[in-house]
Amino acid sequence: MSDPIHDSGETTVLAALALELAPGDPVARDRLAQDAAGRLAMRVAMDLAGFNDEAASLDLVLVGAHYDPVELLRPGWPLYRGLVELAAAAPRDAVAGGGSQVIAFGAHDEQLPGNLAPSPDYTGGPLRLLPFVLQGDAGVAGRVRDAFERDLVETGMAGAETALLAQDLFGMRVEHARYLTLHDLLAMTAMQYEHSGLAPLWPLLEAALLAPSQEAWTDGPREPLAHYADGAARIAMFSPAAWQARHAPDERDEARLRRGFDLFQARQRQFAAVLEAHGVPVTFAHCNASETPDV
Q: Where are the beta strands (DSSP E) in the chain?
């Protein structure tokens, strides 16, 4: 079965329009009707052609909806895969411009096609992303991808008209609008997780996203023991005695032991919640003091 993201007949560029929102401001809608999605897609196509002439010769496939970063960064890139699959079935005269196709997917009666509906579980964040795909000739797409990965971080601000149009159509206050490749988004997320104390978890997420056939572990000092393999993560659930033997063998103060174990359990729940938000299934392996963790 061919991979619609990396089919042998063409290469894709996976990217997003990133909208940084004013903190605490309401957002009127998370999806656009078809006509509005098409208007925004044409503006995006014009911006991308301004960054790189060859981008105009590639098809642009965009969904008129915005998402939390965790919805884009999931194993197999399901949102991007959904866009590619829907574009393959779309009429070739969908929306044309500049000698290439601009294909936009919007909502009909508030319903988006395929798997493109944003999750209500991840609304309210300060960064919202509109994923899009550029696809076409493999050589052209490869050059555009290389150029975008090299330059967009520094030069990828969206045009003022694009930012204002997105602000108006979605009913939100946009402070900054810029373009990011998927590579940029991964690097930015890794940095954010490091700053928020989640650096020990990143090797598992990186394996799940970029090398799903490999294994990865996390087991830092006083950190949960987690193992990624075969598309899922397992987290060792220690009994209080097993946790003490592993992480606090010399501690004798009962109050400090209780607080330490409570913090450890909260950290386990945090790890599990982040992994599951990224679409990585999590199971727990219960371990007693006399057992060797098998995760």
A: 11-21, 59-63, 96-97, 100-105, 127-136, 174-181, 216-218, 226-229, 232-238, 282-287
Q: Specify burial of residue 113 (Cβ count, 10 A radius: 0-12, 13-18, 19+).
A: middle
220 or 12, greater pLDDT: 12
Beta bridge partners of 238: 287
Distance CA 259, CA 248 (A): 12
Closest CA relative to residue 177, chosen from 158, 164, 201, 150? 158
- Alpha carbon distance 227, 216 (integer Å): 6
The angle, 0 to 180 degrees and rounded to 10, between the axes of the packed helices 182-195 and 138-155 is 40
Q: Specify the DSSP element, H or E, that contains 246.
A: helix 240-247
166-213 pLDDT per residue, tens: 999 999 999 999 999 999 999 999 999 999 999 999 999 999 999 999
Tokens of 274: 């982040």
Take residue 256 and report the two structure tokens written for it. 């400090």
Of the candidates 132, 150, 161, 153, the residue with the CA atom closest to the CA atom of residue 58:
132
Q: Are 135 and 84 in contact (CB under 8 A)?
A: yes
Which residue type sits at 103?
A: I
Report the C-alpha gap between 273 and 1 in whole angstroms: 32
Beta-carbon contacts of residue 274 (< 8 Å; ≥ 6 apart): 193, 198, 201, 205
Query: Given CA atoms 265, 267, 272, 277 in this order, what sign does their dihedral have?
Result: positive
pLDDT for position 9: 40
Q: How far is CA 211 from the centre of its chain?
A: 16
User: Could you say which DSSP state residue 254 is in?
Assistant: H
Record the pTM. 0.90
Q: Are 180 and 145 within 8 A, CB to CB?
A: no
Please state whether beta strands 282-287 and 232-238 pair in parallel, antiparallel, or not at all (unpaired): parallel
